[in-house]
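Narrative of activities, Objective 1.

The group set out to show that a structural description can be obtained from nothing but a protein's sequence at a throughput compatible with the screening campaign. Below is one input-output pair from the validation batch, recorded exactly as produced.
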Amino acid sequence: MSSIEEKFLSLPTTGISDALKGHNHMNTAIKPIKDTYKIAGRAFTISIPAGDNTGILRGIRDAKKGDVLVVDGKGYTERAVAGDFVISLAQSMGLQGIIIDGAIRDIQGIKDLDFPVFCRASTIAASIKAAPGELQIPISCGGVSVSPGDIIVGDADGVIVVPSRIEEKILAAADEKIKKDQERQEKYSGSKEKALQYLISVLGD
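Output recorded for this entry:
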């Protein structure tokens, strides 16, 4: 993991969202299957036909260690495009996590692997294998444009995309915003008097 990815990993998605002015967060349905999951890495993008996971298998084979697979599954949730076996392959290949705009299955088995998976839903029906999909192209995932190499950050609040061309700028802005939030917390929390002081400063007497 590079230094910038480690820095993003230390920041909450909420602070990064503030730096991006509330843009570039994926659909709110895309969440981690465990609230404790946190990822920050480079996007390896995959576009698949609805319900077909061949492209995911190709991506697992071709992605680099530490990459985050970002899968445009067309938001389709009637067939799962990954189960515990496919996720175990990604884990074995050294990937950091998988974001799927679609469905998975074998939820308990995947949780037992303790490998970060973010998805739209779970279902029972298996995938099909009929088309190769497309790798490392610009995609839309959860309503957000994602290009290969963009920074993907995910935690319990959701997933956000930082375009690689502005990653340094956004990192600095997010870090500054979070510092200001911490200062506000220290100044105004802990007592009724402090809380009232803050409310008056925002709302007036």
